[in-house]
Each structure stands twice: as C-alpha cells, then as structure tokens.
Amino acid sequence: GAVVSQHPSWVICKSGTSVKIECRSLDFQATTMFWYRQFPKQSLMLMATSNEGSKATYEQGVEKDKFLINHASLTLSTLTVTSAHPEDSSFYICSARTSGRYTQYFGPGTRLTVL
Amino acid sequence: DQQVKQNSPSLSVQEGRISILNCDYTNSMFDYFLWYKKYPAEGPTFLISISSIKDKNEDGRFTVFLNKSAKHLSLHIVPSQPGDSAVYFCAATLRGGYQKVTFGIGTKLQVIP
Fold first, then answer.
1. Distance (Å, rounded) from C-alpha A59 to C-alpha B23?
2. Is A71 helix (H, G, I), strand (E, B) or coil?
3. Contact status of B96 with chain A (Cβ, < 8 Å)
4. CA distances (Å), B69 to each of A81, A98, B28, B101, in order?
5. Among A27, A108, B34, B64, which is most exposed with the fewest C-beta within 10 angstroms?
6. Cis peptide before A86 (omega within 30 of 0)
7. A111·B41 Cβ contact <8 A
8. CA B104, CA B74: separation in Å to the nearest integer?
9. What is the spatial distance between Cα B34 and Cα B24, in angstroms, rounded to a whole number?
10. Which pLDDT tens digit goes with each residue over B69-85?
11. B-chain residues near A4 (CB < 8 A)
12. Which residues have CB under 8 Å from A98's CB, separation 6+?
C-alpha cells in the first residue's frame, strides 16, 4: 500500500515553455500533498504544501506564480513550472499523506531539464 | 538554519556488520521522526519512524533510537546488506499545523560485500 506515482519521470523542454508534472496517490486518499525539489548533493527542499481543495502554501522564496500547484482531488496534485528557465532544471519529487498520519509517501520523482 | 543535521556525508560498512547512521536536531518542538532511504533518481522510501514518547522502535533489521535530551537519533541496520547501499535521510516533524517535514542533508551508506 501507500503508492505514489509521478508522471512524467523525466522531461526536457525549451526555455520559456511550461511543464506540468502529475502526482497521484494510487491506493489511499491524499489529504495533503507536498512538492519538493532536490539539487545535486543537496537535501530535499520543500517547495509547497497543498491540501485537497485549498490553495497551496508556499515556502519562503518559492514563487507561487512560477510554480503553480493544483490539488483538485484526493488522489491528484499537479505542479506546473511556468516559463521554465535552465535554472529550474532539477529533480522534483512529490509526496502525499493521509489525514491524521505523519508519514509521507514519496513519488519516484521527475527529472526536469530546461534547455 | 539547518534544524535537522546529518553530519556524516558518507559511511562505509562491511556486509554483515552494523550500520549506524546519526542525526541531530535543534528544534525541541519536533515530536515525530522518520528515516527515509533513497536510491539515485528515485523518490525516498519510508523506512521507519519514532514518536517522541518512545526511545526505541524496531522493524526487522532496522532500529531507530531517540535521545530527546541530547536531541539525537540514530538508525541501526543489522546485519547490513549490499542492497542497503543508498542515501538515508533523517526527517522530523511537528504535530499540528500542516505538519511540515524537515529533512537532513542525507548520509550515503555503502555496504561492501
């Protein structure tokens, strides 16, 4: 149980385009989903937290207009990187947890490369 | 300010021996701790957790110890296996709010056959 999927697993795009990453909880209802990014040799950095049906809460320094997060259902959250630039190239990972539980279950991650 | 610290970037252990991964935290409000394992280009996999009301939690080969007075926790893997080679992240969270999890920078464990 507690499987989280992400799609796509990798994406290459041109600078200035937008990219959407999907995160799905396959066998549980994810009341809260988290989006992280990881740079090489660094830890996971939380970007934002979203509760189903609510606006996402962004961490300090994360541009909400650039990283659009939608959590429209209990099993799906999307992260859209708008007007992507090479510095947005990173490994993006989502996680999900259900109400009342502390453990987050992570997706396999999405490698974004912006040319 | 790094609230969860893993001061050893890497650790090498012989197969069959014990692996001990350490983690320190500075925020005394943290009350739930987790360990995750991560392979390259994959998302972290939950391993084991411990609540602040306990000082030990065991699951198979994995045991987590918590010393609240020292703000220190450790993950013991025994016996270590080559498949345990990965990056291990220590994480901590607060009850209440939206329970944001704070991760350490990770320790890369290599188990030598």
1. 24
2. strand
3. no
4. 43, 30, 9, 21
5. A27
6. no
7. yes
8. 13
9. 12
10. 999 999 999 999 999 99
11. 43
12. A28, A29, A30, A31, A32
Length of chain B: 113
DSSP code of A43?
Answer: -
- Interchain proximity A57–B104, CB inside 8 Å: no
Residue with tokens 């606006």: A55
Q: The tokens of A3 are what?
A: 């499987």
The DSSP string of A14-27 is -TT--EEEEEEESS
Cβ-Cβ contacts under 8 Å between A and B: the total is 55
A104, B101: Cβ pair inside 8 Å? Answer: yes
β pairing state of A44-51 and A105-106 = unpaired
Q: What is the pLDDT of residues A32-71, one digit of tens each?
A: 899 999 887 777 888 999 888 888 999 999 999 999 999 8
